Amino acid sequence: MKKFTFHLERVREWREKQLAIEEARLERLYSERVLVEQSLALLEQEARESEAIVNRKTAVEAFELQAADGFRRYVIAQRAVFAAKLAGWDVRIAEQRQQLMETRRKFELLGKLKDKQWKTWNTDLAREMEIQAGEIFLAKWGAER
């Protein structure tokens, strides 16, 4: 019997490469989202520090209060910007996860098809070997008689 070959092996390999690409894209999106989260955390820390500086002083000048209020308004506006960015990243991540799941499903489908064909080939090989063994036995038995 001839050697086992899966006729769609090149397609399966291509699907495997596509799967790796989609996984890398998802990882990149997660990394970019983390950068946005880190920027927001840094802004929040700066806001807390600014508020703490003003609260620690016993006497605060009017321009300092004005600057602190301006920064507080800036922080509020930036929170909204970061919230919108994070929501956008969440949408992009959800879409990429869906794409990854679809690519993985297609790859696994080819893997299952390959396994099924291999099992069929293996069964046929065992059957053929059994037939050959029987023929050899009968030939030997016939020669001995």
Task: Explain how this protein is built.
- With 145 residues, this protein is mostly helical.
- It is 90% helix and 0% strand.
- It is rod-shaped, with a radius of gyration of 34 Å.
Assembly category? single chain
Shape: rod-shaped
Beta-strand residue fraction: under 5%
H/E series? HH
Sketch the major β-sheet: none
Q: Please give the radius of gyration in angstroms.
A: 34 Å
> Helix count?
2
Structural class: mainly alpha
What separation lies between the terminal Cα atoms?
Answer: 30 Å
Q: Could you report the average pLDDT, rounded to the nearest whole number?
A: 93
Write a concise keyword list for the protein shown above.
mainly alpha; 145 residues; rod-shaped
Task: Please render the helix and strand layout as text.
Blueprint: H1 9-56, H2 62-144
Report a brief summary of the structure.
This protein is 90% helix and 0% strand. By secondary structure, the protein is mainly alpha-helical.
